[in-house]
Amino acid sequence: MTQHERPLSPHLQIYKPQLTSVMSIFHRITGMGLAGGALLLTWWLVAAAAGPEAFGVAQAFFGSWLGYLILFGLSFALFYHLCNGIRHLIWDAGYCLDIEDVYTTGWIMLASAVGLTVLAWAIGLTVGG
Amino acid sequence: MNLRTPLGRVRGLGPSNEATAHWWAERLTAIAMVPLTFLFVVLMIAFRGAERDQVIALMGNPLVAITMLLVIVAVFYHMRLAVQVVVEDYIHHEAVKMTILVLLPLGCVALGTAGAFAVLKLAFGG
Questions:
Q1: 20 to 30 Å CA-CA from A8: which of B100, B107, B114, B120?
Q2: Whole-model pTM?
Q3: Which residues are within 8 A (CB) of A110 and not within 5 positions of it... i.e. 6 or more apart?
Q4: Do A96 and A106 touch, CB atoms closer than 8 A?
Q5: Which residues in chain A have their CB less than 8 angstroms from residue B111's CB?
């Protein structure tokens, strides 16, 4: 019996990206990114505990342009995952499940994530360190 | 009455009955991380560019150390549950999947313990 390549159901080739689906997959993507971030945090803590040389290496990495880029990405991932996570908790409680509310909360949470990231960096770069 | 066949029962097929606990634990750690995230960001800003002595001084504050410990526990517990779901969704090669699903909780516990130990070492003077 010959194998035929048949699509199982309409998939990415068919569906137009929408706020709903894009925010959903980004919740997963930011989650996985943050898992990597947790590893970096653990490295930084262990390096700090280990001693001045190890800590120096860690601080040099996070102070470099690459380190700043990664930290910026991780901070946006964190605030996005936080805001969209709250949106998920609201759904779990049974609220805002209508499609209009899904879109409204979606835009609110996306704007909040961007706003919190900008705010954190504005404060961090002026006040911190 | 149980509709499962004898072979199905022997093979342990059917629901694991762990799903609700998994779902709830994921939500509990998520709820905990709402305030913890803001505290964590504040602490990371405070640690920015710090010398090791400054890190030790800050971490010596009990509230700072306790917050970092709670962050570590919540993050690694939530991550252990969430990454498992992602693995189950995308990895279907049985050997690869099972290997990862065994290493995941072990890795989370090991790294979480290392992080917590580091926080305590710093808190108690480095």
A1: B100
A2: 0.92
A3: A23, A80, A83
A4: no
A5: 38-39, 42
Contact present, A118 and B42 (Cβ < 8 Å): no
Is the pLDDT reported for residue B119 higher than 70?
Answer: yes
So what's the pLDDT on residue B77?
A: 98
Please name the member of B37, B83, B121 whose beta carbon is closest to the beta carbon of A82. Answer: B37
Residues of B in contact with A45 (CB under 8 A): 68, 114-115, 118-119, 122
Q: Which chain A residue lies closest to B23 (C-alpha atoms)?
A: A92
Q: Let me know the angle formed at the C-alpha of A117 by A16 and B33, rounded to the nearest 5 degrees.
A: 90
> What amino acid occupies position A114?
V
Q: Is B48 helix (H, G, I), strand (E, B) or coil?
A: coil
Tens-digit pLDDT profile for residues B43-83: 999 998 899 999 999 999 999 999 999 999 999 999 999 99
Task: Find, in chain B, the residue whose alpha carbon is nearest to that of A116.
Answer: B38
Q: A85 and A27 in contact (C-beta within 8 Å)?
A: yes
Between residues B10 and B103, which one has the greater pLDDT? B103
Give the separation between CA A29 and CA A86, rounded to whole angstroms.
16
A7 phi/psi in degrees, rounded to 5: -65, 145
Total length of chain B: 126
Q: Is the dihedral of CA B85, A79, B74, B35 positive or negative?
A: negative
Neighbours of B37 (CB within 10 A): 19
Optimal mutation site among B27, B42, B52, interface A, most CBs of chain A within 10 A:
B52
A97 pLDDT above the threshold of 80: yes
